[in-house]
């Protein structure tokens, strides 16, 4: 084995992508995959690829007729080894698109290490391939340049995180994968125990209790690149298993955690993705501000399109849909889209259907037609809307003024139940941002969302749920409302969002047993259930637990955002499909009856 530039190299003396003009005249040995073969008369050209790049190899019958005859037989994706001389490419034949484009490789020895069947799709071209085929042959898909670069980017990000936290005295500590099932939001994946028939381990949704126990243990600064498992319903940005940076600190407040994460992500982007820009300092929005302005707690701040509550204006109109929504404790809300007053009937219908697909009853549109002019000079003739006859000119002007709309803008309004209205408007906002190209693809608009409610009401089960999880500390003074008015309690909870994605969630944790038991009681856990599921944590809180808090940024979603992907499967080496199926191993799959017998299980 030969060592070159700190890399261990097997069966080659240099990597394909490392060759440069200064290597001209050297005799080297290369190994890799045939990326492309071209016959030019008697001369055969091979683009040889390894992980580090591509170099052009030349097989000249005048140098070695035998080697040339072998080269004629080569096909894409064969694995070969070659020895020869590095030469400068002829004048006018350089390739500026390749780092190795100034040189080529004159081959005098060739060894075929392994042949390849014809791949199910091209490796040397970025063509569209059915995702099921890509996942079934993922080991081939990962040879493609885009996927290789993703793996490298992911490695660099994780390596940077480790170095950053190590420099700040964090300890990387592994926690168990087989743990006890505890309610933390999603369903657990259960693992039956052979040695304890009828009992089960659970795969961790996150190491939540374990990292808190490490704080009780005096670790003070812990992190882990943790594998987490959640049996959730399928979605484009979810996987059954994902990777997160798990991080916890003792003797900190909320601002300490946010400052650390802001420094980490700002530096990471600057050093690893220099073409990207970051908003600095990271904006901080309260949960209420985020919902009021953007209709979501994970807004894309790369563009404006702020929303406005129009309920007070709408209540004085003659429009029945507005008044009905308000009578049912709903709201009327909307935003203005710049320079879209000329939208056609078909385009308006598309937006209406999009709103309905997110639960809205309909969409009210008001077009302020005209090329320019002051809003105060707006006339009735310039107002184009299906509901124009129900609105006075002054009411339209009030609505437009509330939204900072100008002549030429299109106003979109939804009336209905608050949650549905916000959801539909947020979806429309994202759609208009896409249609108008408002989002700068090179901007990573990080922001912190803070001051979440500690509890949220579950209408279906008629009970209180934890907004994040049951272990979060209420803000000072709000603990007095835990039993009397849970919906009023604001927690020390925070999210990191970027470009419309939630990247991290965290909180300052409860470190007092009595307070933790009060929260469990509001969430409807019986004393027996609390003791069965949480006794280990509650007992630990009685042994000098320090104030502590942390955050858990998702690695997969971070890589998605940094690399401009909109599908989480593109940034994971071996992902499942959206339905949780693995086409490569064809999992999940049945198991032998003997295995079930050993586990004392029976399929019914």
Q: What would you note in describing this structure?
A:
This protein is α+β, with helices and mostly antiparallel strands and 604 residues long.
Question: Mind sketching the topology for me?
Answer:
Elements: E1 2-4, E2 7-9, E3 27-40, E4 43-50, E5 53-59, H1 65-72, E6 79-88, E7 103-114, H2 131-136, H3 138-141, H4 145-166, E8 171-172, E9 189-192, E10 200-203, H5 208-216, E11 221-229, E12 241-250, H6 254-272, E13 277-278, E14 284-286, H7 287-294, E15 308-309, H8 311-314, H9 320-327, E16 331-337, H10 345-357, E17 364-368, E18 383-384, H11 393-402, E19 410-416, H12 418-435, E20 443-444, E21 446-450, E22 455-458, E23 463-466, E24 493-498, E25 501-508, H13 513-522, H14 527-540, E26 548-553, H15 555-563, H16 593-598
Parallel strand pairs: 5-7, 8-11, 13-20, 14-21
Antiparallel strand pairs: 1-2, 3-4, 3-6, 4-5, 6-7, 9-10, 11-12, 12-26, 15-16, 16-19, 17-18, 17-19, 21-24, 22-23, 24-25, 25-26
Helix pairs in contact: 4-15, 10-12, 13-14
List how many beta strands DSSP finds: 26
**Reading side by side through the largest sheet, how are the strands ordered?**
8-11-12-26-25-24-21-14
* Beta-strand residue percentage: 15-25%
The secondary-structure class comes to alpha+beta
Q: What's the shape?
A: globular
Q: On the 0-100 scale, what is the average pLDDT?
A: 94
What is the number of helical segments per DSSP (H or I, 4+ residues)? 16
User: What separation lies between the terminal Cα atoms?
Assistant: 56 Å
Question: What about the largest sheet?
Answer: 8 strands, mixed
Radius of gyration equals 30 Å
Low-confidence stretches: 1-6
């Amino acid at each position: 084995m030969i060592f070159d530039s700190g890399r261990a190299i097997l069966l080659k003396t240099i990597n394909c992508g490392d060759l440069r003009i200064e290597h001209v005249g050297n005799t080297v040995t290369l190994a890799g995959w045939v990326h492309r073969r071209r016959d030019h008369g008697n001369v055969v050209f091979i683009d040889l690829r390894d992980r580090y790049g591509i170099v052009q190899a030349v097989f000249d019958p005048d140098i070695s007729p035998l080697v040339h005859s072998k080269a004629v037989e080569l096909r894409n994706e064969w694995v070969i080894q070659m020895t020869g001389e590095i030469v400068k490419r002829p004048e006018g034949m350089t390739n500026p698109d390749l780092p190795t484009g100034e040189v080529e490789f004159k081959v005098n020895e060739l060894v075929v290490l392994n042949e390849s069947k014809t791949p199910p799709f091209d490796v040397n071209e970025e063509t569209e391939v059915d995702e099921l085929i890509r996942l079934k042959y993922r080991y081939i898909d990962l040879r493609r340049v885009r996927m290789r670069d993703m793996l490298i980017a992911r490695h660099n990000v994780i390596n940077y995180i480790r170095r950053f936290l190590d420099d700040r005295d964090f300890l990387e500590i592994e926690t168990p994968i087989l743990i006890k099932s505890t309610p933390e939001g999603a369903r657990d994946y259960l693992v039956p125990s052979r040695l304890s028939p009828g009992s089960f381990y659970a795969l961790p949704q996150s190491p939540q209790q374990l990292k808190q126990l490490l704080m009780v243990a005096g670790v003070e600064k812990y992190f882990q690149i943790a594998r987490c498992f959640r049996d959730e319903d399928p979605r484009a940005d979810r996987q059954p298993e994902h990777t997160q940076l798990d991080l916890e600190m003792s003797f900190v407040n909320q601002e300490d955690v946010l400052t650390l994460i802001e420094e980490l992500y700002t530096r990471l982007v600057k050093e690893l993705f220099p073409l990207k820009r970051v908003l600095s300092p990271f904006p901080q929005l309260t949960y209420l501000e985020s919902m009021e302005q953007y209709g979501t707690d994970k807004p894309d701040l790369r563009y404006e399109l702020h929303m406005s509550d129009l309920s007070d204006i709408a209540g004085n109109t003659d429009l029945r849909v507005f008044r009905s929504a308000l009578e049912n404790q709903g709201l009327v809300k909307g935003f203005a889209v710049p320079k879209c007053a000329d939208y056609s009937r078909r385009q308006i219908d598309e937006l209406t259907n999009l709103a309905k697909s997110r639960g809205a009853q309909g969409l009210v549109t008001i077009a302020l037609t005209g090329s320019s002019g002051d809003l105060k000079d707006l006339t009735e003739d310039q107002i184009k809307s299906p509901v124009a006859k129900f609105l006075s000119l002054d009411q339209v002007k009030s609505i437009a003024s509330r939204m900072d709309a100008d002549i030429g803008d299109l106003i979109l309004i939804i009336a209905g139940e608050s949650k549905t209205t916000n959801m539909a408007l947020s979806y429309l906002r994202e759609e208009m941002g896409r249609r108008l190209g408002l989002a700068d693809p090179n901007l990573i608009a990080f922001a912190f969302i803070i001051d979440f409610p500690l509890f949220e009401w579950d209408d279906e089960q008629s009970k209180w749920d934890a907004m994040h999880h049951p272990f979060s500390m209420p803000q000072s003074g709000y603990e007095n409302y835990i039993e009397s008015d849970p919906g009023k309690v604001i927690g020390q909870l925070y999210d990191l969002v970027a470009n419309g994605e939630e990247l991290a969630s965290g909180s300052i944790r409860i470190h007092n047993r009595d307070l933790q038991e009060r929260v469990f009681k509001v969430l409807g856990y019986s004393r027996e259930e609390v003791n069965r599921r949480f006794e280990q944590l509650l007992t630990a809180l009685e042994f000098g637990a320090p104030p502590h808090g942390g955050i858990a940024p998702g690695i997969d979603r971070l890589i998605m955002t940094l690399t401009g992907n909109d599908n989480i499967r593109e940034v994971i080496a071996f992902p499942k499909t959206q339905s949780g199926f693995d086409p490569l191993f064809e999992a999940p799959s049945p198991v032998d009856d003997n295995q079930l017998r050993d586990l004392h299980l029976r399929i019914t």
